[in-house]
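Appendix B. Chain record.
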Amino acid sequence: MLTGGCFCGRIRYEAAGTPFHETNCHCSICRRTTGAPFVTWFSVPRSQFRFVCGEPTRFKSTAKGTRGFCPQCGTQLSFEHDDFASEIDITTCSLDDPGALPPKDHTRTSSKLNWVQLADRLPEYQESRQEESLYPVSGGTDGP
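Structure tokens predicted for this chain:
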């Protein structure tokens, strides 16, 4: 069981099941909604995730995307996409132990800031894994 929550503790969550899509997202929307150069996410089946304390404020950041934030401290916790209703993305660094779930790749690197230098040898995808072939643009040797 993965557990986590926001900075102030008002919201807590649990995620069961096997995490997937562990990534560093470099898209401009993730950057702008967090004020960070990229955001590290993981996904779990929606049916395996629940808020156990508090409820996030939801913000429709795109026509099909909704982000969940703590209404008190502002911590971004989740992302839900209308086209992938059976899964939910969770910010890795909102986990109680984010070190236990490292990213496996970089996505949306076409939007990466020019002063960010990636030296971790993880696979890099200019957009999403689904929008590209099975082979990464650059980076490590592992596939998606």
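Further analysis of this model is presented in Appendix C.
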